[in-house]
Amino acid sequence: MQATVTTAHVSADDGTRLALHVHGEGEPLLCLPGGPMLDSAYFLDLGGLAEHRAFARLDLRGTGESGVPADPASYRCDRQVADVEAARRHLGLDRLDLVGHSAGANLAYRYAEQHPDHVGRLLLVTPSTRGVGIEISDEARSAMAGKRSGEPWYAAASAALERVQAGSEDDADWQAVSAFMYGRWDDETRAYEAWMDGLRREEPAAAWGADGAFEPEVTRVALATLDVPVLVLAGGSDTGNPTPVLAQVAALFPQGELVVQEGAGHFPWVDDPAGFLALVAPFVR
């Protein structure tokens, strides 16, 4: 049964209108999208998560149904911490249970750094490591990619990955390496990837990581004292975020735990919804 989805609009501190889409009934998880700055619609129904726990997906300013801010500099990641806090106040929650996916994890890190008393638990799904200063080498990504050598598309995608790592900005190369972001590269995931491409906006994405957006040393010190349950989910086939690196992310937190969804990539709820729910539902239920 499809969960009911309701949309509310929240006024940010600077007056920007933010859209908050709530799936299901009850106290929701707040989901922060990646991309960076993708329309939160790409979360779909998170594999049917609302059957286990209501969730709210936030359209970041300038994306989805949220308004475009008067100041484009406010797209910067750290400046959107106030938007997450506005969403918390709107939901009437003393503590937020947060989901940060991919680049959205950087916003979750910064929110937890600045508002630790308002964090209940934290689910990080194939999270970016940029905001905590953990580097991912080309060698680590190539090693993950090599696990797919038996796939019919591997030779072309592997050659494209080498060109991208050498600095290629050719759209065809970047499209070819998309195969490494999924646990299965079939008609369904190809269509999903093409649909997401239509949701991307260059200006907000570029401003997201502008100078000052991240302070990894400050953030890591703060996260080391965040004594709340933290689950880091890695996709066993995610070339962008290799499992050993995400183990380092989990180790930043006093209660950090790493789980691996084998056979899944960067969007594990798309690759294998049932496998995704089996790992995250007990944590967030």
What attributes does this structure have?
alpha/beta; 285 residues; eight-stranded mixed β-sheet; Rossmann fold
Short description:
The protein has helices spanning 81-91, 104-114, 138-146, 154-165, 171-177, 187-197, 202-208, 216-223, 243-250, 268-271, 273-284, and strands at residues 5-11, 17-23, 29-32, 55-59, 96-101, 119-125, 230-235, 256-261. The protein is of the alpha/beta class and 285 residues long.
Write structural notes for this entry.
This protein has helices spanning 81-91, 104-114, 138-146, 154-165, 171-177, 187-197, 202-208, 216-223, 243-250, 268-271, 273-284, and strands at residues 5-11, 17-23, 29-32, 55-59, 96-101, 119-125, 230-235, 256-261. With 285 residues, it is α/β, with parallel strands linked by helices. It has an 8-stranded mixed sheet with strand order 1-2-4-3-5-6-7-8, with helices on both faces. Helix content is 35%, strand content 17%. It has one domain (5-133, 203-284): 3-Layer(aba) Sandwich (Rossmann fold). The chain starts with a strand and ends with a helix. The chain is globular. Helix 1 crosses helix 2, helix 3 (138-146) runs antiparallel to helix 4 (154-165) and helix 4 packs across helix 5 (171-177).
